[in-house]
Amino acid sequence: MRIGYKREFMELLPWLIGVYVFLCAAAYFGNRVFMYHTDPTRVAPAEAGLEGVSEVELKTPGGETLVAWYSKAKPGRPTVLYFHGNAANAANRADKFDTMRSHGAGVFYMNNRGYGGSTGKPTEADNVADAGTAYAYLRGQGIDAKDIVLYGESLGSGQATQLAAKEAVGAVILEAPLTSTVDVGRRTYFFLPLGLLLTDTFANIDHVKKVKAPLLVLHGEQDGVIPVQMGKDVYAAANEPKKLELLPDATHNDMFEHGAWEKAWAFIESVRKQR
Q1: pTM across the whole model
Q2: Distance, CA of 59 to CA of 73 (rounded, Å)
Q3: At what angle do helices 124-140 and 157-164 cross, to 10 degrees?
Q4: Residues 106-110: what's their mean pLDDT?
Q5: pLDDT tens-digit readout, 38-70
Q6: Residues classed as catalytic
Q7: End-to-end alpha-carbon separation of the chain, Å?
Q8: Ordered DSSP codes for 62-129
Q9: Alpha helices in the chain (DSSP H)
């Protein structure tokens, strides 16, 4: 390197370091802004075209209010406890909600903090604790643990796996699960030490190892948000009994249009028959 270029580089270096430090600070202090795409708008089930669905308000120990949509199961049918992704809420998942109850199953869809009328701001610790609150509510309604099916969509898979690692459930279904938010983030921000910067990691690759309930992983092979390989890795780390269903033409948000629920329901039925 010629002396002139070397001098210019040394003069530029502090600025480059400063920019890098700024990016690290932004990632550390602002990662939740990018991780959770909240929408606090509260919509009644009837406004979303759903009949026979009630709103339930759950109080957290810290005083927050969680708004959930609940359709009770028909006799002898399971109840699906649904945890949504980072840009979803009950209203924009109304079609999925309706499909999931088509076989007589109950559906309890909890809007995480900051979504669908629920108060507060989401964090991994609070979301997982709130998942436990929803589970306790269903148990308090007299629903047996073996009749509760946890369904985690995308980021919500982190709530499902962590709850299933602590509580007894009939089955666990993970739709497009990530291995961790660190792994997802590294696909774009590979130059940042995200393992040190992200506060909410949702490390399914670790938590799924503690799940003992039968587990199904659903993933679209055309998923451009959470690569199908992550679903395969979560499946590989899970305990038996387990099943992997890959949908060749599905992307991240259209899995139900490609038969995901039919496969999920067949799995639920098979698990229940084996008891």
Answers
A1: 0.91
A2: 23
A3: 60
A4: 97
A5: 999 999 999 999 999 999 999 999 999 999 999
A6: 154, 223, 252
A7: 72
A8: TS-EEEEEEEPPPTT--EEEEE--TT--TGGGHHHHHHHTTTS-EEEEEPPTTBTT--S---HHHHHH
A9: 3-35, 94-100, 124-140, 157-164, 181-186, 194-197, 204-207, 228-237, 260-273
